[in-house]
Amino acid sequence: MTTALSDVRPVGERLRAWRQRRRLSQLELASEADVSTRHLSFVETGRSTPSREMVLRLAEHLDVPLRDRNLLLVSAGYAPVFEETPIEEPRMDSVRAALRQVLDGHEPYPAVVVDRFWNLVDANGAAAFFMEGAAPELLEPPLNVLRLSMHPDGLARRILNLAEWRAHMIDRVRRHVALTADASLAQLYRELRSYPGDVGEAIAPPPGHEVFVPLRMRLDGRELSFFTTIATFGTPVDITVAELAIESFYPADAGTSEYLRERAGW
To answer: Which of 64, 161, 184, 219 could serve as a FRET partner for 152 with CA atoms 20 to 30 Å apart?
Structure first.
């Protein structure tokens, strides 16, 4: 969790921090949320206590993550409204089934489900080769796919364009930290940057790959190339569901597709 529910700062202070993080002026947010600038100013300075509905409305327009909306509600004196259901609970059966359908449907290409820290939640059989040859400690739960891919004892030693791939992935984590202000995610960002190698600013992809940054790696003496897509649930009201993401790997060339199909016995 970004901050414990018991760590309560004034709701106005929290709302102001989120507004500034989104680089919105009071006038811009007030206009978007259909409230007066004066009232928003009073809320941020603590001169006025917002209603529960007002907190949720402002949080919606600020695109605040669900777990942090609970913190805003608690800070304003209201009960949290968003639940966080463990993925293994029976009420999550339909969610797990949907994830499994997507994963299985993506075979023979790799796909993984991760949480907000990029910890592995589930994966299809084709993703197994990402873990081959990695140090055992990197495979212990919770298995973090970013740590696995960028650690010197993980997938990094098989990635052919490591500097390029790491630069873009670390920049991706940096942007998530900026969006969420999550202290644990910031710690992961610092860890990833500490690994040996070039982790400068993201660089332009090489000629021929202008539309995406490929993951190029060597496996079984073959050079493979992938691009990825990310899918999330469209209308989540549960924190766990809101923080799940499916990352699907697609072959970026015919040779990679042929190899994966041969590997799967297709």
So the answer is: 184
Chain centre to alpha carbon of residue 265: 32
Does residue 105 register a pLDDT over 60? yes
**What percent of the chain lies above the pLDDT cut of 70?**
92
pLDDT at 227 over 90: yes
How would you write the chain as a 3-class SS string? CCCCCCCCCCHHHHHHHHHHHCCCCHHHHHHHHCCCHHHHHHHHHCCCCCCHHHHHHHHHHCCCCHHHHHHHHHHCCCCCCCECCCCCCHHHHHHHHHHHHHHHHCCCCCEEEECCCCEEEEECHHHHHHHCCCCHHHHCCCCEHHHHHHCCCCHHHHECCHHHHHHHHHHHHHHHHHHHCCHHHHHHHHHHHHCCCCCCCCCCCCCCCCCCCCEEEEECCEEEEEEEEEECCCCCCEHHHHCCEEEEEEECCHHHHHHHHHHHCC
**55: number of Cβ within 10 Å:** 25
Report the DSSP beta bridge partners of residue 226: 215, 251
Reply yes or no on domain 90-264 having CATH 3.90.79.10: no
Confidence of residue 2 (pLDDT cuts 50, 70, 90): very low
Task: Give the domain ranges of the chain.
Answer: 11-76, 90-264
Q: Does domain 11-76 bear CATH number 1.10.260.40?
A: yes
Q: Tell me the two tokens of residue 239.
A: 């924190």
Tell me whether strands 120-123 and 215-219 are parallel, antiparallel or unpaired. Answer: unpaired
Amino acid, single-letter form, for residue 196:
P
